Amino acid sequence: MFKPDREQAFAKTALALMGGAGVIATPDNFELFYAYASGENTAITQAMSAAINAKIPLTPELLSDLRLRCLSGARAAVAMENVGGGMSKVIDDVLGRLEAAGKDTADYKHALTAATGELGANLDQGRTPADLRRLVDGLISATRAMEQRAKSLEGELQASSQKVDELRTKLADVRKESLTDPLTNIANRKAFDDAAAAAAEAALGGEAVSLLICDIDHFKKFNDNWGHQTGDQVLRLVAACLSENVKGRDTAARYGGEEFAVLLRGSGLKDAAHVAEQIRQTVETKKLVKKSTGDVLGAITISIGVSQFAPGEAVEAVVRRADACLYGAKRNGRNLVIAQNDARMAALETSAA
User: Fold this and answer.
1) What would the pLDDT profile of 53-84 be if each residue is shown by its tens digit?
2) Cα-only R_g, the chain
3) Which of these, 109, 251, 269, 295, could form a disulfide with 263 (CB 3.0-4.6 Å)?
4) Is 41 in the same domain as 135?
5) 306 three-class SS
6) What is the C-alpha separation between 208 and 210, in angstroms, rounded?
7) What DSSP assignment string belongs to 214-281?
8) Which CA distances in Å does 8 have to 2, 21, 39, 341?
């Protein structure tokens, strides 16, 4: 869920860190330092902390390498550039071959026209069979050469087609990576935004669509007590629980930090609350165990807010309502599901007023 105060704090911290490190505040650098300030990208947090602690200068080369290694968007941009360059080369090759084939065809047509004219002249002038034989041999030779060139072109175009298929596969992989959270391997915020826009259109057409906003209870203690790697393990575990309980056109996404969102297509509020309860119970059964000792580090629970799209309603309004329900779940003790029609929401609004 979007928290303006927190996002503003991260942005100010990022700018302050760039100023302190003598780094120019470009959009690319801001993206890196914002990720570092928010702590949402473990790889960036660890790499930049190590560099800062070791007093390694944050040079443009180091920051560029860090973006490519740790930010899926940067990797996707480079991959897209490579795919685009490869596709351009294939197109140029094919156009060149087709141009050459067109010239060969024109030459062959010219040879046929000339032979036809010569054949007519030979018949009119009573040329010898040897003359006719020479003419026919020439036509056969030209035809065989044209057949060979056509066969060669077919092979070249087939190779180009295979190259296009390879590039298409790479393009699909790039798109998938750009829409996937690298830590949890579920949909990222961009994928959620795309799916939410499609869901709003579906709701406008009369389809029942609901939204779950989920937040890991007391997530900070896992990072503080056991380190970011343990926190990452918790995030992956919760993401797996979400994936287990969604299907078909549903979308489970990492919304940001320890927050997740689930879009349920074809599900009204009652059914969505039931799915949310299944997810909550699944997560509740999980225990975080230290592999080296077998010690149980703690139980994991989540709180979930549930809202339903109204026809024509903006996505932001649906998110705010689910966010308010999530807040209600937190206020009522956590490890809880609260939907927008829950009586406890009315009580919470009354007490807030």
Assistant:
1) 888 888 888 888 777 667 665 455 555 555 55
2) 32
3) 251
4) no
5) strand
6) 7
7) EEETTHHHHHHHH-HHHHHHHHHHHHHHHHHT--TT-EEEEEETTEEEEEEET--HHHHHHHHHHHHH
8) 11, 20, 14, 32
Identify the active-site residue in 258, 277, 284, 313.
258
Q: What is the β-pairing status of strands 337-339 and 209-216?
A: unpaired
Instruction: Identify the weakest region by mean pLDDT among 131-135, 161-165, 169-173, 315-319.
Output: 169-173
The answer on 332 and 261 residing in a single domain is yes
Please check whether residues 11 and 84 belong to one and the same domain.
Answer: no
Decide: helix, strand or coil at residue 205: coil
Three-state helix/strand/coil letters over 146-160: HHHHHHHHHHHHHHH
Are residues 292 and 193 both part of a single domain? yes
- State yes or no: pLDDT of 352 exceeds 50: no
pLDDT digits (tens, 9 = 90+) for 77-113: 555 555 556 666 766 676 677 667 667 776 777 777 7
Pairing of strands 259-265, 209-216: antiparallel
Q: Domain limits at 213?
A: 189-352
Domain count, the chain: 3
